[in-house]
Structure formats: C-alpha cells, structure tokens
Design goal:
Layout: H1 2-59, E1 77-81, E2 86-89, E3 93-96, E4 99-100, H2 119-122, E5 139-147, E6 150-162, E7 168-176, H3 178-230, H4 245-294, H5 301-325, E8 333-336, H6 337-346, E9 355-360, E10 364-367, H7 369-386, E11 391-398, E12 401-408, H8 429-432, H9 442-452, E13 456-461, E14 464-470
Parallel strand pairs: 9-11
Antiparallel strand pairs: 1-2, 1-7, 3-4, 3-5, 5-6, 6-7, 8-10, 11-12, 12-14, 13-14
Helix pairs in contact: 1-3, 4-5, 5-9, 7-9
C-alpha cells in the first residue's frame, strides 16, 4: 500500500508538473510573440518616421545630393525613382535584400538635382499624388541590409512621394531589428532558465501536499489491515477532523464496519441459536431410535413423528431465512389478500381455536403468494398459541395500503416486548413454557417477508398483529 500511495504521489506530482509545463510553454510562447510584435511595430514606426522625414525633404524640393540622410548601421535609407534607379542612398549602405544600392547602381542619378531631371520625368503620369505630396500609405517589410560590410536584419518602411517637379520616388528607410531580437532572446533565455526551476518547485509542492492529503488514507489503510488481521470488527478507523472527501471516506468506512459487525454478530447468534434448537429434536429422535434398536417394543412412533415434523419445520424455516438473508426477491405477481385468507383459513381444520373471518376488503398486492401465505400462517399459529377462545382475521383497505389484521383474545404482548418478539429465536417466558412454543422464528420470518414486499409488520395493540402492504399498480 505504501508503494501504491507513493505511486499516487508520483502520478499527482508528474501530472501537475506536465500541466504547469504545458501552460508555461504556451504562455511563454504567447508572451514572446506579443513582445516581438510590439518591438517590431516600434521598429517599423521608427523607420516610418525617418522615411517620411526624407520624403518631406524631397517634396519640398531639396536636391537628392543635398538630402540629410542618416548614417551608421541603425537607419539605412535608399531613395529610388519610379523606374527603380537609385537616386540617393545613406552613407556606407551597400546593398538591401542582396541588391547593390551603392552610387551608380541601377543607373543611379545620385548627385543630380531635381532641376536636372528631364521634362519627361517631370510630367505628371496621372497618379493620385501631386508634385510635392507624400503618400499616406506605408509599406512595411522585413529585410536585410549591408552597411559598411555588415549584413543585419531590418524593419523597412517604404513611403512614396513626388518631388517638386512631379517625379515619383520611393523612400525606403530601415530600423535595425538587432535590439529587438536581443530583447526577445533575453526574455526567452530567462524563461528557459526559470521554467525548470519553477517545475521543480511545482513538483516538490505537489508531492508534499499530496503526501499530507493522503496521510489520513494511510491511517485508514493501516487500521483496516489491523482489523483484518485481528478479525476484531469492533475497532474503527481514525476519522480526520477535516470535512473533505477523506473525512467522508473514514465515516463511511466506520459505518460499513458497524453494519458488518452487526451482521456478523447476528449471524453468529443465528448459528448458535439454530444449533441449540436443532440439538433438542435431533437428540430426542436419536434417543428414541437407539432405544428402538435395543428394545423394539419400546419405540415411541408418535413421539418420533412429532420430533421429525418439528425438525422438518425448523429446517424449512432456516432455509427460508437463509434465502431472505441472501436477498431473494419475491415473485412479481398479483395476490388478492382476501381470496388468500379465505383459502388458507378453510384448510385449518385442526386448529385449537376456530378462526373467525371479519371484513375482507378487496385489494391486490404485488409479491409471492407462497411467502405471504407463510406470513398469514405464522400469524395464525402465533394467535392459536396465545388465544383463550377466539382468533379473528380481517383485510381492510387503508388509503394506498392493504392491511391484514390477526387478533386473538389472549393476554397480549407487553409494550416493552413488541419489537423484541420479531427477533430470531426470541420467545417470551410464557411461550417457552409450552412444549409447542416453536423455535421463535415465525414472527421473524413474517417481518422479513413483509419488508421484502415493501410493507411492514407490527403489533398495533396488545394482541393485534397488522401486516401492511402497498396496493399493486
């Protein structure tokens, strides 16, 4: 069990670690993407500002060779004409996206003023921009640039404009992405370093928390093992003070142990009482048979028959109780209690006291006719045993129930004994004084059958037994 609990702790810690790892990886990826997008937008904004600044100089008529272009690696600028020729380029800028943009590249006219452009180039080609205007739209692209022999990545912003003569130009300015890449790499490296440490902490905390949570379970397991080894069902598992699932488990376990203890005790008592009840008729029958072997003329045949019948009835009662205890369900048939009472009482011709039939109201119940007839027979036998001179049976309808009542004119059952008489092998003192007092199983069987049929059996007054069953359907 310790290994099993350890496995539970390990699985819980591993599961929590995997979930947290996946969540952190997803969150970290999202953070890096958002950070990169934000930094990229900032670089694009810086490139756009520089491109518009240069485009503004061109729109106001500044000659291309007089443009104030930034130098260095951070802000490469290239100005091209409508035909793709390089008109101006920042200092030390040699190539953009692998294409040479140095002076003279692509028919460069760097160093020529706007006044030197021929009239054909100055003609308005019908575009939406007028001379001296700058396009509001910006084209952002990532690319590379070679500045003074160093190739790096840039965020380029391209802005279209027309100079004072109406010639179209495109100003392409770049902003280095190296700082942004370094920032994202720094955040990524910090995450990669912190993630394993955080996962170790999560696994450790989960392990400790799970161990603490399962400690009461180990206590319950240990006590159950001790109970199993000692077979002492009076012991109970410890109940933690917490009102969580483990606390409910402990309380339910104790309730199960209490029910099991009661069942085992009841079974032991049943076996002991059954052995005691069986011993008498068997011993009597054996004695008579042994006497008959030695002295056949002394054989008491009627006595042997009585003992045999008593033994047969007791065995039948024990067998029925065993079936009831095993959970045997009654047959799902319709039984008319009034008709059953008429039929069963008509066959009782040898009763000590005649049975009078009272009201017989109609009403069918669902169940086993043989078992319900057994209940009626046991109640009548009990009434015959205690009646002074009258036994009465009736069936009445009471709402959604049908009540079968058996009454005698005997002394009645004392109020303090009205529940105890339904226990197995229980007989009151006056019944024990009788030779035909029975084994004390009749009323116990009757109540068990009543409960199995969804009804009840109780003593309503001193000498009135009432079987109440729900109406079928």
């Amino acid at each position: 069990m310790g290994r099993a609990l350890g496995s539970v702790r390990a699985r819980a810690a591993a599961g929590a670690t995997v979930v947290v790892a996946l969540a952190l990886v997803a969150a970290g990826t999202a953070v890096l993407l958002v950070l990169w997008s934000h930094l990229q937008n900032q670089a694009g904004l810086q490139a756009e500002v520089k491109a518009r600044e240069v485009a503004g100089q061109i729109a106001t008529g500044t000659p291309y060779d007089k443009l104030d272009l930034p130098d260095g690696e951070d802000r490469p600028v290239v100005v091209t004409g409508g035909d793709g020729r390089v008109l101006a380029v920042g200092e030390d800028v040699r190539a953009v996206d692998g294409k040479s943009v140095g002076k003279g590249a692509g028919g460069s006219r760097a160093g020529r003023s706007a006044d030197d452009e021929d009239g054909e180039d100055g003609e308005d080609d019908g575009t939406r921009l007028k001379p001296g205007e700058i396009d509001d739209d910006v084209d952002f692209r990532d690319g590379s640039a070679d500045v003074d022999g160093k190739v790096a990545g840039y965020r380029f912003a391209a802005v279209e404009a027309k100079d004072s003569r109406g010639a179209e130009v495109t100003v392409r300015a770049g902003s280095a992405l190296a700082p942004e890449e370094d920032a994202v790499a720094s955040v990524r490296d910090a995450m990669l370093i912190g993630l394993p440490l955080l996962l170790v902490v999560v696994a450790g905390v989960t392990w400790l928390v799970t161990r603490r949570a399962l400690r009461p379970v180990e206590g319950i397991r240990g006590e159950m093992a001790a109970i199993t080894a000692s077979t002492d069902l009076s012991r109970r598992v410890p109940v933690p003070s917490s009102r969580d699932e483990i606390g409910r488990l402990a309380r339910t376990t104790n309730e199960t142990l209490a029910a099991l203890e009661l069942s085992v005790e009841r079974q032991r008592r049943f076996v002991a009482d059954a052995s005691h009840e069986l011993r008498s008729p068997i011993a009597s029958l054996r004695t008579q048979l042994e006497v008959a072997v030695a002295h056949p003329e002394l054989l008491d045949v009627p006595g042997a028959v009585v003992d045999t019948v008593r033994l047969q009835r007791l065995a039948a009662d024990l067998l029925l109780l065993a079936r009831l205890d095993a959970g045997e369900r009654p047959a799902d048939t319709r039984v008319d209690l009034a008709a059953m009472v008429r039929e069963e009482t008509s066959q009782r011709v040898a009763d000590r006291v005649p049975v009078r039939i009272g009201e017989l109201a109609g009403g069918e119940v669902a169940g086993s006719r043989s078992q319900l007839a057994r209940v009626l027979g046991n109640l009548l036998d009990n009434a015959q045993r205690h009646a002074a001179g009258a036994v009465r049976v009736a069936v009445v309808r009471d709402g959604e129930d049908v009540a079968l009542r058996v009454e005698d004119d005997g002394p009645g059952v004392p109020e303090s004994e009205r529940e105890r008489i339904f226990e197995r092998f229980v007989r009151l003192d006056d019944a024990r004084a009788r030779d035909d007092g029975g084994a004390g199983l009749g009323l116990a069987i009757a109540r068990d059958v009543a409960v199995r049929h969804g009804g009840s059996l109780a003593v309503r007054t001193g000498s009135v037994f009432e079987l109440r069953l729900p109406v079928a359907g």
